[in-house]
């Protein structure tokens, strides 16, 4: 019952947020430009095409009518056609979604696996050389431009040493499409060759994206642990002689992780943003590469469609994280 | 077997602070006999909590330093024991703890049952007998827990175990804390201002429960409080502390009948009564970074002489079991 | 204030950050004098394309034969201009909104905060891409895109701090004494929440520089031949296996500058954040 109330509550906030996102994108695409039709038509369009598009998109109508029609068309799954591929933008985006999801999800898992233990150790050895070292390393990790780091890794490991592939998801064709996640599909098909190949292709993009994400997790876990370690319940548990191991790895860690979980939404945002440039560098056939190609070819519908899709994903992830947080934190009653 | 359970001799503890080294405990002597309830009375900042934590061996390692002194608990020298044996042998087994603030002493993200189960897993008195199998012991402990929850007059013991700390009231939490302190059958319970955070109406009930259970089981209690009225209700003997030193120690009746230290006298006078109204003590609590030499109370004492300004008073016996540290104790002031 | 400076001086990492920021500012101001080939921002020397670092071109040359070291120095000017202006605009929008919304509790404030929540509900870079793409590549448009996406951070922060500050006795006293709301906000609340704003702004500088460089890398920054660092790295990609210096040094410059702001921000937070200060006070 409590969970149900929580879910309904969060969903009630989800709809206006989504509308707000659409309003922002609408504002950017329909209100800011002097002539939106010219944008949609692209650089080489004739005046006749532009006029035809203006009429077709109803750009001569009042703004609120335009906004209403815009929302209806988005709900209908219509984001216009891409000039670059000539296909509906929605189709293009959806076909590239699994690649980006696979990359970001693997990165989140790697970042948690590395970041949480490091954060715990840094908190336990507060002010040791290890803690200070981790502080500098995590700050540095958050200061690196991912596109630059990606290029350096590619230069060293792919071009100079030849240890990893230059880019892409696999050599040649991917596995038969089941889920669109190559790792899972390869596992289902028991195709170890493709699995290994896909993993090799994944190493550099995952490392690049994991650097800022791991740094964030380390910092939040450390702060959460320190906060919990200074709490009254740790004092009480210590005074009553609960074993130190139990206090730290059960009682303190659970409290610290609840804080970290709320940050996964933030981390997902960092990853989606990073994916734009990192995918482009590693030629990863996901949303990011699509967005970069669209920007370079001034493919207006595609860029706006990308914004809506990524914004929506981000909002959905935060919704899920919120609900998850409400479920694992017993204090949450809203 | 002597009647003395714990003896503190010449304990000096200092804390590092921004302003300098604060001498929080300066040569404290204290004795608690088996089964007696000792009240440790003083204003906030007088060192009560530090003394309580020193006995438990849970002073913050980086900030506090034990300069001198001895704490004997039965055959153990607490200050000589390492952290591991303190945690496994003494804390939670021989010496239990009731915290000041029951609102924050429970871990917020685990059920009360989990926290009690973990306590029993490591501190159950049945562990000492060692003839029961793990399963038998768990079952027996479960019954003992429920029995104890009934003894502290908690309604619906089974239900409480399934609840999270924030779901029960402050008074009930403090009853739980008393139950948890007594479950391991300790010889000494350190209760650090256990009723300060509670409503006045609840305070009396908690005191009654604590006093009755301690008496029934012959458990000694070190009860710190800044409230003389509370001390009168529950204690057998009272020790008054002032600015990090104990100044007077007496059986409760004698204490209220014949206070011999000028500070004690003023403390008693400051109790609001129908004749006097409210009277404060003039002057200020001394700064512990740079305390006054000699008797620490002399700047606020009308009876102070040159001797008081230079030499710390030794302990005088003014009556049987009634000791006072003053060069000029009050004679039969009642 | 002196206590803050003294504590900051003890934090070697923060001090190092301050030095890095100082170097950036010096590089930007003294670019004409420090650079070895000041004309190379616009001049080409196709004969010397892609020369490796050496005595003549300390950090090598790019595809046009221009000196990378000199272009980096002029690039520092662009970075500072973009980051400082964008952040100043974002602060100028966000702080008053947060202050007013936090002070007056009502439907209006609720609405303002919901709007900033929606902005925060989309990754900054994605919104910035959409805006910059619409407006076209130029310095002004990058600044616009960044301030339009970053202002909610300050609005949210100031809103939360103002709300908790409003219940502080000194603010209640000022209100009870009949100070005008404007006076209470500017003279009483703003000074007491300024440390949080400073910390947030310092860290925000790093993030903004990174986002600006990303926009540049994507071709949404100031157009060529502007020596913008992110764009330079994008240009360098096609010459990669050989001309490593072309991509490496601009990225290093971005890294060091962002690192500078992050280190300083981290140090400032340790010094200014009252919650951390409380941890240093020991039990008596």
UniProtKB/TrEMBL annotation, chain A:
One of its GO terms (molecular function) is dipeptide transmembrane transporter activity. Its main location: membrane. It is found in: Cell membrane. Gene3D superfamilies: MetI-like. GO terms for cellular component: plasma membrane. Residues 97-325 form the ABC transmembrane type-1 domain. It comes from the Bacteria. It is a multi-pass membrane protein. The chain crosses the membrane at residues 12-32, 103-124, 136-157, 202-221, 256-282, 302-324. Belongs to the binding-protein-dependent transport system permease family. This is Peptide ABC transporter permease. It comes from Neoroseomonas lacus. The lineage of its organism: Bacteria, Pseudomonadati, Pseudomonadota, Alphaproteobacteria, Acetobacterales.
TrEMBL record, chain C:
It is found in: Cell membrane. The keyword ATP-binding does not apply. It comes from the Bacteria. It is a multi-pass membrane protein. One of its GO terms (biological process) is protein transport. Residues 76-265 form the ABC transmembrane type-1 domain. One of its GO terms (cellular component) is plasma membrane. The chain crosses the membrane at residues 12-34, 78-104, 202-223, 243-265. Keywords: Cell membrane, Membrane, Peptide transport, Protein transport, Transmembrane, Transmembrane helix, Transport. Pfam families: BPD_transp_1 (PF00528), OppC_N (PF12911). Belongs to the binding-protein-dependent transport system permease family. PANTHER family: D,D-DIPEPTIDE TRANSPORT SYSTEM PERMEASE PROTEIN DDPC-RELATED, OLIGOPEPTIDE TRANSPORT SYSTEM PERMEASE PROTEIN APPC. This is Cytochrome c550. It comes from Neoroseomonas lacus.
């Amino acid at each position: 019952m409590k969970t149900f109330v929580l879910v309904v509550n969060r969903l009630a906030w989800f709809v206006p947020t989504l509308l707000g996102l659409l309003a922002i994108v609408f504002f950017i695409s329909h209100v800011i430009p002097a002539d939106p039709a010219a944008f949609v038509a692209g650089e080489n369009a004739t005046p006749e095409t532009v006029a035809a598009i203006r009429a077709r998109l109803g750009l001569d109508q009042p703004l609120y009518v335009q906004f209403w029609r815009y929302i209806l068309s988005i709900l209908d799954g219509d984001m216009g056609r891409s000039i670059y591929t000539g296909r509906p933008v929605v189709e293009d985006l959806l076909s590239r979604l699994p690649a980006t999801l696979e990359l970001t999800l693997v990165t989140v898992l790697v970042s948690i696996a590395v970041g949480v233990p490091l954060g715990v150790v840094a908190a336990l050895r507060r002010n040791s050389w290890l803690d200070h070292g981790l502080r500098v390393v995590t700050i540095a990790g958050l200061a690196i431009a991912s596109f630059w780091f990606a290029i350096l890794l590619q230069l060293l490991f792919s071009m100079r040493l030849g240890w990893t592939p230059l880019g892409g998801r696999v050599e040649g064709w991917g596995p038969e499409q089941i889920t669109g996640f190559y790792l899972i599909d390869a596992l289902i098909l028991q195709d170890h060759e493709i699995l290994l190949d896909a993993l090799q292709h994944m190493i550099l993009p995952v490392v690049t994206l994991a650097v800022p994400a791991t740094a964030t997790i380390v910092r939040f876990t450390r702060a959460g642990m320190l906060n919990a370690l200074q709490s009254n319940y740790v004092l009480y548990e210590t005074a009553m002689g609960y074993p130190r191991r139990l206090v730290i790895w059960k009682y303190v860690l659970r409290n610290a992780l609840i804080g970290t979980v709320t940050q996964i939404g933030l981390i997902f945002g960092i990853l989606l943003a990073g994916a734009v440039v990192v995918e482009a560098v590693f030629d990863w056939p996901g949303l990011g590469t699509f967005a970069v190609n669209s920007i370079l070819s001034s493919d207006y519908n595609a860029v706006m469609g990308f914004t809506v899709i990524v914004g929506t994903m981000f909002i959905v992830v935060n919704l899920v994280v919120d609900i998850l947080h409400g479920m694992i934190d017993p204090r949450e009653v809203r | 077997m002597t009647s003395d359970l714990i003896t503190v001799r010449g304990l000096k503890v200092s804390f590092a602070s921004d302003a300098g080294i604060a001498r929080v405990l300066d040569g404290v002597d204290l004795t608690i006999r088996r089964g007696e309830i000792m009240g440790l009375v003083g204003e906030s900042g007088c060192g009560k909590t530090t003394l309580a934590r020193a006995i438990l061996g849970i002073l913050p390692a980086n900030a506090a330093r034990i300069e001198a002194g001895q704490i004997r608990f039965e055959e153990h020298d607490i200050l000589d024991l390492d952290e591991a044996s303190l945690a496994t042998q003494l804390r939670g087994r021989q010496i239990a703890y009731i915290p000041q603030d029951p609102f924050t002493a429970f871990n917020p993200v685990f059920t009360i049952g989990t926290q009690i189960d973990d306590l029993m897993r490591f501190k159950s008195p049945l562990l000492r007998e060692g003839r029961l199998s793990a399963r038998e012991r768990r079952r027996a402990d479960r019954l003992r827990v429920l029995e104890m929850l009934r003894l502290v007059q908690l309604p619906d013991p089974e239900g409480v175990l399934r609840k999270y700390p924030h779901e029960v009231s402050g008074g009930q939490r403090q009853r739980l804390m008393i139950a948890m302190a007594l479950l391991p059958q300790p010889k000494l319970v350190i209760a650090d201002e256990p009723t300060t955070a509670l409503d006045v109406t609840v305070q009396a009930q908690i005191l009654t429960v604590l006093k009755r259970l301690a008496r029934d089981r012959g458990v000694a209690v070190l009860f710190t409080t800044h409230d003389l009225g509370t001390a009168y209700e529950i204690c057998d003997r009272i020790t008054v502390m002032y600015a990090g030193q104990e100044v007077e120690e007496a059986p409760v009746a004698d204490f209220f009948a014949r206070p011999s230290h000028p500070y004690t006298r003023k403390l008693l006078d400051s109790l609001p009564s129908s004749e006097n109204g409210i009277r404060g003590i003039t002057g200020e609590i001394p700064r512990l970074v740079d305390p006054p030499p000699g008797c620490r109370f002399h700047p606020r004492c009308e009876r102070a002489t040159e001797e008081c300004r230079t030499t710390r008073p030794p302990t005088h016996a003014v009556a049987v079991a009634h000791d006072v540290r003053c060069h000029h104790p009050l004679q039969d002031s009642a | 204030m002196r206590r803050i400076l003294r504590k900051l001086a003890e934090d070697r990492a923060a001090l190092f950050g301050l030095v890095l920021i100082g170097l950036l500012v010096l590089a930007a101001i003294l670019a004409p004098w420090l650079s070895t080939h000041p004309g190379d921002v616009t001049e080409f020397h196709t004969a010397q394309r892609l020369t490796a670092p050496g005595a003549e071109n300390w950090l090598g040359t790019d595809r046009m034969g221009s000196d990378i070291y000199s272009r980096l120095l002029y690039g520092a000017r662009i970075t500072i201009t973009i980051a400082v202006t964008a952040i100043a605009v974002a602060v100028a929008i966000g702080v008053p909104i947060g202050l007013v919304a936090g002070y007056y509790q009502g439907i209006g404030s609720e609405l303002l905060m919901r709007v900033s929540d929606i902005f925060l509900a989309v990754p900054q870079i994605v919104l910035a891409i959409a805006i910059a793409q619409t407006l076209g590549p130029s310095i002004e448009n990058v600044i616009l895109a960044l301030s339009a996406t970053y202002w909610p951070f300050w609005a949210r922060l100031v809103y939360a701090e103002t709300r908790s500050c409003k219940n502080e006795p000194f603010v209640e006293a000022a209100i009870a004494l009949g100070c005008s709301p404007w006076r209470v906000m500017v003279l009483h609340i703003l000074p007491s929440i300024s440390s949080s704003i400073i910390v947030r702004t310092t860290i925000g500088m790093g993030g903004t520089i990174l986002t600006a460089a990303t926009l540049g890398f994507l071709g949404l920054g100031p157009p060529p031949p502007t020596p913008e660092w992110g764009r330079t790295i994008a240009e360098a990609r096609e010459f990669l296996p050989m001309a490593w210096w072309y991509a490496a040094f601009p990225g290093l410059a971005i890294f060091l500058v962002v690192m500078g702001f992050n280190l300083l921000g981290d140090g400032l937070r340790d010094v200014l954040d009252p919650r951390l200060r409380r941890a240093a006070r020991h039990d008596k």
